[in-house]
Amino acid sequence: MSTAVGCEMHQGVAIVTLDAPDGKVNILTSAFLHDLESTARRLERKRPTAAVVLSAKSGGFIAGADIREIQRVTDAAEGAELAREGQRIFELWSNLPFPVVAAIHGHCMGGGAEFALACDFRIAAPDAAIALPEVRLGILPGFGGTQRLPRLIPVEKALELILTGRKVRAEKAFRIGLVDRIAPADGLLDAALVLAREAVLDKRHLLAARKRKTKGLRRWMLEKNPVGRTLLFRKADKSARARSGGHYPAPPAIIEVMRKGLSLPLPKGLELEAAELGRLITTPECKNLVHVYFLSQRPGKGHGLRVEARPLRRAAVLGAGTMGGGIAQLLADRGIPVLLKDIRPEAVAAGLEQARRIFGKEASRKKKDRDAVTGKMENITGTVSYDGFHEVDLVVEAVVEKMTVKQTVLKEVETHLPESAVFATNTSALSVSELQSASTRPGNVGGMHFFNPVHRMPLVEIVRGGQTSDLSTATLFEAARRLGKIPVIVEDRPGFLVNRLLVAYLNEACLLADAGVDWLSLDQKAEEFGLPMGPFRLIDEVGIGIAAEVGKTLSRAFSYLPESHLLPRIVSSGLTGKKGGKGFYLYPRKKKPVPNRAVDRQLGLRKLRNATVFDMRKLLLLMVNEAGRCLEENVVNTPEDVDTGMVFGTGFPPFRGGLCRWADAEGLPGLVRELEEISAEAGRRYEPCAYIKERDSFYH
User: Confidence band (pLDDT; 50, 70, 90) for 210?
Assistant: First the structure.
């Protein structure tokens, strides 16, 4: 039987190789952990002078624990025992009577990072990325991470890494004492063997050098006295609760386990960690976050597609505005040469500057030098002509949102493209099928709806027009994946998926405000539910003019949706939203937005009452009903598509798992009854559709 862990001797040093069979990466399954235990027992008997542990996988060290095993746990005692088992096996490695060196390249995540922490020393290749991302699954590191990391590096840094789940690159990991050395990737094993032999000769000297690196007045003030440590943990708790809105139980649990554990011997700290993992792993928040994780890792092909995508070697973007510049930047960032075309040189220059600005911010955030920006920008060529378009595989159109303009551009560009090139419109609401009527190759025309800002929003709607071929759909789907996005295939219906649900929600919020519900209090209720912002702040972000136009389009398309007259009034008032610095909120430079209460007077809004939880619930129920209609009309194929769109396209609270998942947790039959009661007063838009009336839940 093949094993995930191999071992051979090299001049008295054991070289332990991690290489899970039948997998592209090493995952800590139960079987893998069993192999680690067996290897530790063998090494205990063989007594080499030292051991070096490295991965045979090109992608990295260990990618983390098996999330499906986390998903299956429904009992707190079982969850705690799962943690104890991992801790016990890692303790075997920690207690081996000779130095153990973890040689890390690529990804070293979750349980993989905890295994590396159990080793005596760590050496990393420059491409190493170490993280403890369990908080993103609603749990804490349960194989020793909350206890070993703050004993190794400054507690302040340990809290930051565990509470955010962020990756630490090799250079920073070395600076904070997480790794002991950095070595070239092609010399990693040799450097690890050198470190192992040095540890045999003088382990105390190496440990002292590590300790000197993390010394300092700040660490002494915050960690080495009771008052400083109390303040440190109190500040971390306040910050974590502010970020999470109090909706996520894992951050406060992590802080408490780390706080208590540091005052206890390691074995007792590990027991605290195991018990808390058992509690967290069974919470609804954990199960919902695991569900969201699997939504982000969905299959590589779209539902029902049985064709291979065409290769994407070169691309072009038409329209160098905010969206066009952002899409060009994204393509260039992924190493795809891209032509950025507009009809005016100054527009092209602005689009290039937009891309350069995004690259600059990313380089600054990742602490890269300006050469990195220059290198990426070399992938973008600005142009006002169609020179070079005969070589492109994909054209993304991001011109003004008018059908006549888009059809003219499509007719014009097609004469310069190879027969195989796919044309994607970035429209947010216009019909792809109508656009295809202007094409000589309608099968090659589809939609690729990016969300703004392009470089941050993970979702892309792949819109299949009436004549879009499976080959073109597959090509657009794969292109989105290559760009690091999460694609969802949608049929060509007004608003597609996300805007259809979102505009119904925003339109209803406007109707409530016009009826006397205070708009600011409704925003507050939305945030209390867990949304990143309320409907009126979102209208400002989208742009008041765009929101009004899309709202009008959908009201005309779906007769049951009454059009709110609030947005046309605010458009007439000259307010534009965030881009103009003023809308429902005011946007002072480099300051947080503040409510613009002057709009009440400008728009003739009467504040008769504050919003209630029931008002917010009505908005949610309307979206649930609209989701049912989208599934009924085959706009999308599955509830997973709806939840993917809502979480990654609108910021629907991940801890709730998505709109359909939330509806199931509430009880779909009960929601249907609520809709029926509301529809008696509010009208057709609340009449439950057949899809949700015929089911007990979306998912089962």
Answer: confident
> Using CA atoms, how far apart are residues 695 and 623, in angstroms rounded to an integer?
17
SS (H, E, C) 18-81: ECCCCCCCCCECHHHHHHHHHHHHHHHHHCCCEEEEEECCCCEEECCECHHHHHHCCCHHHHHH
Are 28 and 112 within 8 A, CB to CB? yes
Tell me how far apart the alpha carbons of residues 479 and 463 are, in angstroms, rounded to a whole number: 13
pLDDT at 207: 78
Going through 294-334 in order, the beta strands assigned E by DSSP cover: 315-318
DSSP state of 577: B
- The answer to whether residue 486 scores a pLDDT higher than 70 is yes
User: Under CATH, which number does the domain 5-282 receive?
Assistant: 3.90.226.10
* CATH match of 499-635+667-693 with 1.10.1040.50: yes
* First-residue to last-residue Cα distance in the chain: 38
- Three-class DSSP category at 339: strand
For the range 66-69, what are the long-range contacts, defined as Cβ-Cβ under 8 Å and sequence gap of 24 or more? Answer: 66/27, 66/28, 66/29, 66/30, 67/137, 67/290, 67/293, 67/294, 69/29, 69/30
CATH of domain 315-493: 3.40.50.720
Annotated catalytic residue within 449, 455, 565, 700: 449
- Taking CA atoms, 485 is separated from 477, 563, 649, in Å, by 9, 33, 11
Question: Does 291 qualify as catalytic in the annotation?
Answer: no
Beta carbons within 8 Å of 201's beta carbon, 6+ residues apart: none
Q: Is the model's pLDDT at 399 over the cut of 80?
A: yes
pLDDT digits (tens, 9 = 90+) for 644-693: 999 999 999 999 999 999 999 999 999 999 999 999 998 899 999 999 99
Angstrom distance (rounded) from CA 499 to CA 151 = 48
Q: Where in the chain is the domain with CATH 3.90.226.10?
A: 5-282
Tell me where in the chain the CATH 3.40.50.720 domain(s) lie. 315-493
pLDDT digits (tens, 9 = 90+) for 403-460: 999 999 999 999 999 999 999 999 988 999 999 999 999 999 999 999 988 999 999 9
The count of other CB atoms within 10 Å of the CB of residue 129 is: 20
pLDDT band at 110 (very low <50, low <70, confident <90, very high): very high
